Amino acid sequence: MTKNEFLAELKASLKKIPSDERQDILQDFQEHFDIGLEEGKTEEEISASLGSPQQIAKELVANYRVEMVEDKVTTGNIFRAVWAVIGLGFFNLIIVLGPFVALAGIIIAGWIIGITFVAAPLLVLINVAVYPQIFEFFDLFFSIALAGLGLFIAIGMFFATRSLTNGFVRYLKYNVRLVKGGLKHA
């Protein structure tokens, strides 16, 4: 594969990265080819030593998405990073998607429990408004106790969500490094 073919495939595969970053990457590979040509290598030898442009692009997109999550943690950025890391290889479908679904389930369940516990007094008051004849102080006091517990759960979930998100981002970075290292030695 010639230099122009390699760079064209790489550019086409890097559509998901902003154009300024894409140009920097292409410039780096252009310089790599220039240095290799100065050393007496052919364009085909240089492109063969670099590997597949599609795989390089997948790794670069995954790195970019993980860095985006590190800069700004949003649900969209997390999903895009997970999807990019899964795209590195079929094995990642199990290794990344399984823990992601488990952690997302734990976080969502914790938040739902906290919010419903906090809403318990409101639900009791609505029940009393609809059926005033069944009011009991025990229900009101128990719902207030649940609301207090719900506040503690919500506060705990805030910190748990933040730490699990940071831990998962570190896991994604580790996975990307592992795949890169595994491809270099293959």
From TrEMBL:
Chain ranges passing through the membrane: 81-104, 111-134, 140-160
Alphabetical UniProt keywords: Membrane, Transmembrane, Transmembrane helix
A Pfam entry, by short name: HAAS
Name this protein carries in UniProt: DUF1700 domain-containing protein
Lineage: Bacteria, Bacillati, Bacillota, Bacilli, Bacillales
